[in-house]
Amino acid sequence: MKRFSSLFILLLSLFFSQALAQVSEAEILGVETTTAASSMEAAQVFDKSVGEATVNILAKDADGNPVAEADVLWSVKNSTDGMVYVVAINGEAAHLGVLGKATLIVSAKTNAEGKASLTLDMASAGDASVSVTVGDVSAKGYDGRDMRVVWF
């Protein structure tokens, strides 16, 4: 029984230390992607259609370990007149739209590997910028840039 108790305390301590870890670095895994637009029906649902573009991020603590359950704020700025759709958050279907020239804020949490994702789609030529904040840290990609998705 003592061995079980010690193992339980160790697991509990590992869980809380990971859950309470501070995000010191957040990275957008990619900077720009270009894709063909989906059909109008496909652009509104998470169906792996041609126009879907997924933005992935990774959150780490000061030691380079992934941070689970960190707060993520996605800011999607639609730069054109069409509708950009948020079709998935962390791989789960979502049904949100960003009308032309508007910005949408979406919240999520990182998973056990410190990752989070947002999947966008569009039914016409368009352009969207995605900026991300994890905890109090602004996530950036290569050369300190936000993510950009361009549909043709």
The total strand number stands at: 11
Mass-distribution shape: elongated
Which spans have pLDDT < 50 for at least 5 consecutive residues?
7-14
Provide the helix percentage. 10-25%
Q: What does it look like?
A:
This protein has helices spanning 2-19, 40-43, and strands at 25-28, 32-35, 53-60, 71-78, 84-89, 92-98, 103-109, 115-122, 126-134, 137-139, 147-151. The chain has 152 residues and is mainly β. The chain is elongated, with a radius of gyration of 18 Å. The model is unreliable at 7-14 (pLDDT under 50).
Annotation keywords:
six-stranded mixed sheet; 152 residues; elongated; mainly beta; five-stranded antiparallel sheet; single chain
Can you lay out the helices and strands and say which pair or pack?
Layout: H1 2-19, E1 25-28, E2 32-35, H2 40-43, E3 53-60, E4 71-78, E5 84-89, E6 92-98, E7 103-109, E8 115-122, E9 126-134, E10 137-139, E11 147-151
Parallel strand pairs: 2-11
Antiparallel strand pairs: 1-3, 3-8, 4-7, 4-9, 5-6, 5-8, 9-10, 9-11
